[in-house]
Amino acid sequence: MSENNLLNGNNGHFNMDDSSSKPEAQQSAKAEGKIYFSNGAREILLADNNPKADVITAAKVAGIQAAKRTSEFIPFHHANSLNWVELDFSSSEDHIKIESTVKAVTRSGLEMEALTAVSVAALTILDICKDHDQQVNIQDIKIVPKVSKKKMLTVKTPLKVGVLVISDRITAGLADDEVGQMLQSGFAKAGYHANNYSIISNDADKLIEKVQEWLEQNIELIITTGGNGIGPRDITLTSLEPFFDFRMEGLEQTLHSIAQVNNNGFYIDRLAAGKIGKTIVICLPIDNALAQDALNVILPNIHQAFEF
User: Fold this and answer.
1) Which of 99, 104, 34, 30 is nearest to 60 (CA)?
2) Nearest-CA neighbor of 281 among 234, 231, 242, 307?
3) Would you tell me which of 96, 223, 236, 279 could form a disulfide with 227, CB atoms 3.0–4.6 Å apart?
4) 168 and 136 share one domain
5) Of 143, 174, 197, which residue is a domain's last?
6) Is 48 a catalytic residue?
7) Which CA distances in Å does 133 have to 41, 86, 97, 127?
8) Neighbouring C-alpha atoms within 13 Å toward the C-beta of 194
9) Helix, strand, coil: what percent of the chain each, to 5?
10) d(CA 34, CA 142)
C-alpha cells in the first residue's frame, strides 16, 4: 500500500487480516515506556499517605485490564485471550520506567497488547499526578525487540522445491490442478527455486521414478499432493513411506491438527512427512485449504530442518 493510500484510508477499504489459517502458537511480547515528572510530583507519587491511594498498584491493575481489552480500542486488531500479563515499575530521579510482558497461545502477535498495557499504566499515573505537576509527560513507549536464542542458520538459500501432483482425474483432463499450482506459486513467491512441477497418474512406478529423479537432482524439498485417501488407487504413502529414513512426526501432527480444524474435527485423508537422504518429502491430499495452511506452516519454518 502506498503512503498516500495509507494516510487516506485507501478509500475506506481497510480489512482485518485473516488469521484463521494460521496455527496457534505460544506468543509473547514486551514493551516499555517512561513517565517523567518533577521532584514535587515524584514525592507525592511515592508518598505513603497519597490521598489517591497506591499509585503503582492502580497503574498496574489498569494496564492489565487494558491489555485484555486491546481489540476494543484498535479496530482491526484480533481479540487475543491472554494467559499472562505482567507490569514492572522502576523509579529513577526524574522518571518511572514501566515494562510490560504479555503471553498467550494464539494466532496473532501480542505487540499491541504489550503497548496498550504500558500506555494505560502511564496514563493512570499521569492522571493521579497532573494536578500536582503540569510538566508530567509520557515518553519513549516502544516495543522491546525480541532476542532470538536460536543459532543462525547456515543453510544455502533459496531451497530447491519440487511439487508433484498425483491424480488420475487431472492427467485425464477431467479436473484442473489448483492445489499443485497454488503450492508452486506460493514457494516461488517466497523466493524458493520452484521450477520442478509435474503431474502423474496414480501409478506407483511412475511416482517412485519421478521422486528418484528429483532426488538425483538434489531437490531439497518435495511436496506431493494427491493419492492420500483410503481407496485402492491411493498409492502415494504406501509407495513412498518404505523409502523414508525416518518420519517427521512433529510436522505430521501439525498438519493433522490444521486439517481437523478445517473439517470440524474429522479428517479421513492421510498425511505424511519424512526424510530421504538430504531431501524432505511432504505428502499432502488434494485439498485447497490444507495446501494454503501447509504453506503458512512450511514457508517460515522449513529452513530449521536443513541447519544440521
Assistant:
1) 99
2) 242
3) 236
4) no
5) 143
6) no
7) 6, 28, 18, 10
8) 17
9) 40, 25, 40
10) 10
Q: What is the spatial distance between Cα 104 and Cα 8, in angstroms, rounded to a whole number?
A: 33
pLDDT one-digit tens code per residue, 86-95? 999 998 888 8
Whole-prediction pTM: 0.62
Residues 51 and 174 both lie in one domain = no
The residue from 17, 48, 94, 127 that is catalytic is: 127
| Complete DSSP assignment for 61-107 | HHHHHHHHTHHHHSTTSPP---SEEEEEEEE-SSEEEEEEEEEEEES
Assigned C-alpha cell, 142? 516502544
Look up the domain containing 272 and give its range.
160-306
Backbone dihedral angles phi then psi of residue 258, each to the nearest 5 degrees: -65, -45
Q: Supply the CATH number for residue 109's domain.
A: 3.30.70.640
List, for residues 105-115, the tens digit of each pLDDT value. 888 889 999 99
